Amino acid sequence: MKKRQEKIVRRVQAAMWVAVIVVQVCTVARIRVPAAGLEAEGAGEVLADFPESGQFPQEDGTLVVKSLPVLAEEELVRPQKHREGPGGRDFLLARWETVPVVFPGHREEISRTEEYEQVEDETGIPRTMEVLAEWEGQSVTVVCEKQDQKRTGEAWVDGFRLPVTFHGYRADYYELGDLKIPHDDTRPRLEGQEAVLLEMAGLSPVNRRIETIAWDGPAYTADDGEVRRDALAAGQSRIADYQVTYAGTAVFPERPGWQTVAVYEPVEAEVIVEESTAPTPPEAVIPDTPVPLWQKLTRTLLVSVGIGSILAVAGLVIFGILYLVKRRKI
Hints:
The protein has helices spanning about 1-30, 195-200, 295-330; strands at about 55, 65, 80-85, 90-105, 105-120, 130-135, 140-165, 175, 180, 210-215, 220, 225-250, 255-265. By secondary structure, the chain is α+β, with helices and mostly antiparallel strands. Mean pLDDT is about 75; it is low at about 20-50.
């Protein structure tokens, strides 16, 4: 008997411990974390995956509001105390903080077209060009390469001059490079040799043409004792207008920024019950109806029987208890 009672006591204790544990678990689950939804994320968030601003209802009924990110922390504005949430519901500011974010980098293809006018030699057109690119307040210098070039116009203009020196002037033939030119005091006899003369000077016959050539002063003796004479070739140069396209890639780096994150709690609406000023209607008056004699006798008999039954049952219970006590003593 004693072992059975101990077993029952142990079961009751175990049940009580289970109940205590269940209550603790439920209590912890209902505790609100003060910084819920405001976890810092290290160096910040990438704006490509982060909303610029907005309000976001939470499962616990609160409202998280994130401001528009800014580059300088001092540009942030304190969140307003009251805010209207979804469905026009009123929310009250509970807490807020500033958090770091990251404005992402940006890559952009840059293309610039430059006009070059009256160019005598297209080899003088630059192969690269520095372009200043701007994006959302940032500026970077991009070195763009020449991608396309086309001629938009051309013309032949006077003014081309080319000095020429003849060697061995007093001989029957005087020399101009590998050429042997017949002696002529009136003019240099270079008909048909204009292109060769240009190539000897390192010029392209495509862009230059010699129209006349004349002596430029009398013959003279050089330091080495050779007799020479200078001439001057004149003609035209071809100038052209060019349209050149440069292209490159501008890379804008990431930038740190800030924004506010505020938590709002809903404001419970007050229910105001106005007291009615209408007069209270009078209570209905139920007239007394005489009870017949046979009903009075019936009620009295039922009450007496009920009381007797209760006393009888109580007596039986007491008798049974006394009997059990007396038998245990024996």
